Amino acid sequence: MLTLGDFSAWITVDNLPLQEYDPKIKGSEIACWIPSEAGKNFTVKWMIKEHICVITDVYLDGKGTGGRILRAGFGGTDHEDSKSGIYTSPTSQKLFLFSRLDLTDDDAYLDTNHTQIGEIKVVFHEGVVDYDATFAPSVFQEPEKVHERSKKAIDHQVGLGTEEQTPRQKFSCCRRLRPLATMIFRYRPIDILQANGLVTPAPESPAEPQVGEKRPAPPEDALDPTMSGDEEDEDDKEEIEALEVCVCFFHYRDLSPLVLKARLAVLRNKRRRTEVKSEPGVKTEPGSASFRKVK
Question: Where is the DUF7918 domain (predicted)?
C-alpha cells in the first residue's frame, strides 16, 4: 500500500494486494514498482481520510478511465473505494486486464508515444459536484500496436477482459479544483524486476534425487550413526586378546576350540577392515576398493 498523507492506494490481483518495490516520494507524488502477470485481472483500490469532496481519477498507460467521487462529509473514517473496469452501461463493465504487448514491425507505429505504457496512476483532487448526469460511454481505448523497436523492456500493457454485470451506478458531472496526491504503480513482469535488481529472487530449495539417482555422499566430518566409535574398538581389542589366550591354552591341552577360533577370526577381520587406510602418495586405481575409519 502506498500512503501519502490522508491518501492510500494499492493494486490487487485475485483479491490479494500486489507487493510494492522501491517506493519513492517526490513532493505530493509517490511511485513504486509492482509485478504483473499477463492474463490476470486487477483492481485499483484506495482509501481516503478527508472530510472534503475528493475526486479520484485512474489512468492506465496514460489513458483516463473516469473518476469516482467521495462527497464531502463521507470521509474521515478510512473510506475505501475501488475501480476494476470500464463501464459499458450503468449495470455492466469490462474488467481491467494485464495483457502482452501487441508488437509490430510496421514503421507507421514507430513514432507513436508509448512513454506511459506500463504505468497505473491514481490522482486525488479536491472537487465540486455540479449536477447528476446520465451514463455516457467511456473514451478509454483498447491497446494499440507497439513497434518492436519501441518496446524498451516493457512486455505488458493494460487491456480489457470479460464483461460482467454490476449494481446500477449513478453518474455526476464535477469540477477538479486542486491536486492533493498522485500515486504511480509501474508494472513489469517479475523476471524483469529481478533482472534490474528491484526484486531479490527467492532462494531455490535443493532438488530431491530422482528415481535411480544416488543421494550425495555426506561430508567427511558427518557423524556415522552405524558405528559407535572408539569404545567398540577397545572392547573388540580386549576380547581378541582374551580369545588368543584361551586358544593357546586349548592348543596346549590338545583340545579343539572351534567356536573360539571362529569368533577370533570374525573379530580380526572386522579390525582389519576398519584399520586399512590409503597410504600417502599412493593413487587409487579405478575399480579398487579402499576403506576409511569414520571418526
Answer: 11-198
